[in-house]
Amino acid sequence: xxxxxxxxxxxxxxxxxxxLQSLDPELKIEIGPENVQNPAEVEFAVVWNHPxxxxxxxxNLQAISSYGHGADGLLADKKLPEGVPIVRLTNETxxxxxxxYLLAVVLLKRRQxxxxxSNPEFVExxxxxRHPGNQLGILGLGYLGKAAAKVFLQMxxxxxxxxxxxxxxxxxxxxxGRDGLTEMLNKTDYLVNILPLTDETLNLLNTETLSQLKRxxxxxxxxxxxxxxxxxxxxxxxxxQLSGACLDVFRTEPLAEGHPFRKHKKILITPHNxxxxxxxxxxxxxxxxxxxxxxxxxxxxxxxxxxxx
Amino acid sequence: xxxxxxxxxxxxxxxxxxxLQSLDPELKIEIGPENVQNPAEVEFAVVWNHPxxxxxxxxNLQAISSYGHGADGLLADKKLPEGVPIVRLTNETxxxxxxxYLLAVVLLKRRQxxxxxSNPEFVExxxxxRHPGNQLGILGLGYLGKAAAKVFLQMxxxxxxxxxxxxxxxxxxxxxGRDGLTEMLNKTDYLVNILPLTDETLNLLNTETLSQLKRxxxxxxxxxxxxxxxxxxxxxxxxxQLSGACLDVFRTEPLAEGHPFRKHKKILITPHNxxxxxxxxxxxxxxxxxxxxxxxxxxxxxxxxxxxx
Lengths: 309, 309
Known about the structure:
Two copies of one chain form a homodimer.
Chain A: E1 2-6, H1 13-23, E2 29-31, E3 42-47, E4 63-66, H2 72-75, E5 86-87, H3 92-110, H4 113-118, E6 135-139, H5 143-154, E7 158-162, E8 172-175, H6 177-186, E9 190-193, H7 207-210, E10 217-221, H8 230-238, E11 242-247, H9 260-263, E12 267-269, H10 279-294
Parallel strand pairs in A: 1-2, 1-3, 3-4, 4-5, 6-7, 6-9, 7-8, 9-10, 10-11, 11-12
Helix pairs in contact in A: 1-10, 3-5
């Protein structure tokens, strides 16, 4: 019986390993598929960016855990073992980091701090400069979207959200469906995209939908790059329909050198760092799912294969 | 009986006038000393950057209101009428704007967004970049300092504050005195200066005190420029003792063209716009003090001349 950790080195698999080991010194953990002694022993796998087809090698796999909030990368593997349940992570620290990033970006825009930083010779003086809009729209009201909504409500923003199914969240206007999306976009000053990548969300943000935002709106993407049609965003920024964008995720990562986003004056880009998975913090949740998987109990944060998240 | 408004045009005296007029259509309001018909009629004056000695012209003045949170500019007039009480403004909108500015700046630093903005060709990828420090120190725990403390507590920061007298604020470690200042600075990652300008605070932030901050700390000044020794800040930034600074107030405003702050890579400057006085929002408070003044009742937000604020 063993637990396989298959993560890029930059995700610090050894820290996850020692955190799991401190929870259960008896647990056999193998780091990297190349170090697996006996494939038949692997019962649980924690993966991110794993080689396609890898997971078919373990005949006794009871469950697979994505090492992040999203499962789209895992599900993109067309050779997954049939019938093996897939789980993903939800974690308060991750939600806090992402909410913090989103608030940082929205306040940066509202208080025009980038403009001041890039124009230190300014001569106008003394009137509080605040972007007037106060309406936030959040695409995706799952664990991360709800946490962000709470932080923006605390800061006095008006908050609306759109998701596959209507949600009941205190203080948040909830929308769903295509008409609901239009209705929300029409009143939105700051659009925050935290959507998972699914068949429904692929290319959802395009000329048609982004044009429905209030003129001068600001777009932020921390979900998945593939939900945005990149050329459409650039056209809307150049036309002045949108006033700016902050992008943390891209169709292809790392973003290519010389990609038009890199030097666009209205775009702030960050290297997919709005949040990352803290190994110490998620180890208990992974270990809990491991125990549940090997004893056949209901798993936490099970991915719904029909909806893709 | 009249109320005199003496403000720079950029402070929109006409909006204040119409807001006051809507509270009391009978109130006689005069805008600008040059338009006063009968100096003996002036019973209340709202001022900002008034000409020295102006207020001696009104023999029946019952009270003077500063048109901002600070009264240092008013008190700098060495020819003030003796015995006429001075009040200042406190206002929730102003406190919210300032708290928002402070949070924007601290999160900007924590999430290194300016660094990303100035280096859009970055190649490192994917690890959440967060400045590790979590300890905020607030100099000045009056109305504005308390409001800021609350916002930072909500966002999960550890918050301490230093003020002339010890304060009881839930969740905030309170310090006073020179030893208390040292003790607080020693543990501070982000120092927020909201101090009023008084004999005690003049030049308080200098090589000695700023060196007591944790190495790599970040300094923010939204109080008054004269509390900071400018050359000392530059030396500490250049030596790497401090990692950066955001300055909204300066010893001389507007800041001179070519001032070393303008092009320093570790300094973000803004044009004294962390908050400004919203005329509509403060009109009721000014009108209330007007009524109290002419009927000899206790005034709101009376300035303590001994302590200078």
